[in-house]
Amino acid sequence: MDLLLSWIEKGGMVMYPLLLLSILSWYVIIERAFNLRFRNLIPQNLNELKTLIQKGDYESAHKIASVTDHPFTRAISVVLEEYLKGRKEKGYLIQLMEAELSDIVPKVERNLPILSTTASVAPLLGLFGTITGLIKVFQAYSLTSHEQAINLLAKGISEVLVAAATGLGVAIPALIFYWIYKVVGNTILERIEKEAKEIINSLE
């Protein structure tokens, strides 16, 4: 704790917003690691539903889908309900499925803007800390004696390096995990889209 406080003190005032961004970004990184998974966004009984639909047992599939609390199964339930009512046009059913599955997209992309914002803003804050540190260095030479200027010079350079390093240290993991979760999210959405099309095509 003392080391952290010492590091913040060396970096100047810009360290406080950087610390806040770091806490927010690591919260998102951990939250997404737990929640952005196939098993959370694709129902466990999907294969069972697909098998029933492929066999033509639409009523059983509809009953199972309607009692399963999951966005994907709810979408399947709505599509099967319309199909059983006689609305069998594939184009209509695809549009209906897409409309119902649109609720999944925000769950996949949740909190990712925090990571992208952190990756963009943190280096700028580090640069701002660098500039303020350099200002202190030049003020040291213009307003103090030579011996005092050397001491302030060392402090100013320290602030420059600490602020710059912290800005990059906060931004780099945020940027890396943003793209990791972006790729994972797109893969999940592509899998959902593929499964949805297979279900629609299985309807006779």
Secondary structure blueprint with pairings:
Elements: H1 2-11, H2 15-35, H3 38-41, H4 46-55, H5 58-67, H6 71-84, H7 90-101, H8 104-109, H9 112-143, H10 146-202
Helix pairs in contact: 1-10, 2-9, 2-10, 4-5, 5-6, 6-7, 7-10, 9-10
Keywords:
204 residues; mainly alpha; 2 domains
Helix content: over 70%
Helix count equals: 10
Choose one word for the global shape.
rod-shaped
Derived structural class = mainly alpha
Number of domains: 2
Pick out the low-confidence regions.
none
- Cα-based radius of gyration, to the nearest Å: 27 Å
Record field, number of beta strands: 0
Distance between the first and last residues' Cα? 66 Å
- Assess the beta-strand content as a share of residues: under 5%
Could you write a compact summary of the structure shown?
The protein has 204 residues and is mainly alpha-helical.
Write up what this structure looks like.
- With about 200 residues, the protein is an all-alpha fold.
- The protein folds into 2 domains: about 1-35 and about 110-190; about 40-105.
- Helix content is about 85%, strand content about 0%.
- It has 10 helices and no strands.
- Helix 1 packs across helix 10 (about 145-200), helix 7 (about 90-100) runs antiparallel to helix 10 (about 145-200) and helix 9 (about 110-145) runs antiparallel to helix 10 (about 145-200).
- The chain is rod-shaped and about 90 Å long.
